Amino acid sequence: MAGSEAAWQAANMGVQVIIHEMRPKVETFAHRTGNLAEMVCSNSFRSDDDEQNAVGLLHWEMRAANGLIMQMAGRHRLPAGGALAVDRDQFSESVTNALHDHPNVTVEYGEITELPEHGHWIIATGPLTSQGLGAAISAETGADALAFFDAIAPIVYAESVDMNVAWLQSRYDKGETEEEQKAYLNCPMTKPQYEAFIDALLAADKTEFHEGETAGYFDGCLPIEVMAERGRETLRHGPMKPVGLTNTHAPENKAYAVVQLRRDNALGTLYNIVGFQTKMKYGAQTDVFRMIPGLQNASFARLGGIHRNTFLHSPTLLDDQMRLKSRPHIRFAGQITGVEGYVESSAMGLLAGRFAAAEILGKTLPTAPQDSAMGALIHHITGGAEAKTFQPMNVNFGLFRPVDGLKGGRRGRKDRYKAYTDRAKEAFSEWLADQS
């Protein structure tokens, strides 16, 4: 996804771009197609609120910069309350077609296994960098690539959900239309059902790691069984929280916990189980997930899985133009740089594409302003983070410089977030205007 956005931005600046894509010639276990920008873990770009949410602000900045990813996400949007969710197949096909149709873009299919010696390059290999290229990067940087483990949530056929038990509702009825307000399927649990589910989850067979691997999970994408191991109530205060939902079959009964499923395609035939990334073995998954009321007869289009993600120690290896310090003709973008999430990865691709194109055109493009969402992210990964404890990071307001004179704490949060987003939009708009 980062590479697609980088190519789009550079091509629109008048630079001839070649995209090297190893799929489908060289496959990964997580991908299903050879399309560019294929979504694997989820079909959601998360919140689209550009006034009170940092990722929604990032959406705004990418749209302002004529971002391909946001353009196609808007075109294939699905109802998801206040979130931006898409039909993942239509989305990736449209990104692929847009790049194939661009007069300045050529797509070559085949694996790159060595760091190129000459030219201008952006490595945006995502979380699943191939073994050959990963070894070349590791050899150049003089250190083993860092890694953490990411998990994939299962997808259920909608027709197999028992709608006598489940109901349609977005949390707090969020959304401007009835379709948005009913964007999620909800499966309620009583306390005994929840306790039995947690017991089964903890006892289920899990995927084992190979010798030498350690489970350094990213907190934003923890497997549900890992969350359950942290405490029996953890899931009930996380993806299974019952707040903001009323069971239309029994309005007087307050659910102890609720499992939500989000629409995964435009037809509404597929739903993914929200927050249910898992490392359980396939047989255990079907047994445990069918304990969820409403999913007792569920059929699965895809079961969950787990994979190893690699990322650079960017604070020590990359400059503020996303160049590898030891080989400045090579830039990195996307999740491999230590950002986490589709939106963040795409945003880093947007910056890398613009930086590379400007350099080719003999221009100097300053990095994104620190008070913008993109600037806060790139500042974090290229020097703002504590190098010794560097880990993948989602965009969040904790990365932003404080606004003077505003109240701290939860009570002042709404005014504070609005001040952050107003300031960011102004700074980012000025940055874009200086390039025109």
Automatic annotation (TrEMBL):
<dbReference type="InterPro" id="IPR040131">
    <property type="entry name" value="MnmG_N"/>
</dbReference>
<keyword id="KW-0819">tRNA processing</keyword>
<keyword id="KW-0521">NADP</keyword>
<dbReference type="InterPro" id="IPR004417">
    <property type="entry name" value="TrmFO"/>
</dbReference>
<keyword id="KW-0808">Transferase</keyword>
<feature type="domain" description="MnmG N-terminal">
    <location>
        <begin position="2"/>
        <end position="363"/>
    </location>
</feature>
<dbReference type="GO" id="GO:0002098">
    <property type="term" value="P:tRNA wobble uridine modification"/>
</dbReference>
<dbReference type="GO" id="GO:0050660">
    <property type="term" value="F:flavin adenine dinucleotide binding"/>
</dbReference>
<protein>
    <recommendedName>
        <fullName>Methylenetetrahydrofolate--tRNA-(uracil-5-)-methyltransferase TrmFO</fullName>
        <ecNumber>2.1.1.74</ecNumber>
    </recommendedName>
</protein>
<dbReference type="GO" id="GO:0030488">
    <property type="term" value="P:tRNA methylation"/>
</dbReference>
<comment type="function">
    <text>Catalyzes the folate-dependent formation of 5-methyl-uridine at position 54 (M-5-U54) in all tRNAs.</text>
</comment>
<dbReference type="Pfam" id="PF01134">
    <property type="entry name" value="GIDA"/>
</dbReference>
<keyword id="KW-0285">Flavoprotein</keyword>
<dbReference type="InterPro" id="IPR020595">
    <property type="entry name" value="MnmG-rel_CS"/>
</dbReference>
<keyword id="KW-0274">FAD</keyword>
<dbReference type="GO" id="GO:0005829">
    <property type="term" value="C:cytosol"/>
</dbReference>
<comment type="function">
    <text>NAD-binding protein involved in the addition of a carboxymethylaminomethyl (cmnm) group at the wobble position (U34) of certain tRNAs, forming tRNA-cmnm(5)s(2)U34.</text>
</comment>
<dbReference type="InterPro" id="IPR036188">
    <property type="entry name" value="FAD/NAD-bd_sf"/>
</dbReference>
<keyword id="KW-0489">Methyltransferase</keyword>
<dbReference type="InterPro" id="IPR002218">
    <property type="entry name" value="MnmG-rel"/>
</dbReference>
<keyword id="KW-0963">Cytoplasm</keyword>
<keyword id="KW-0520">NAD</keyword>
<dbReference type="GO" id="GO:0047151">
    <property type="term" value="F:tRNA (uracil(54)-C5)-methyltransferase activity, 5,10-methylenetetrahydrofolate-dependent"/>
</dbReference>
<comment type="similarity">
    <text>Belongs to the MnmG family. TrmFO subfamily.</text>
</comment>
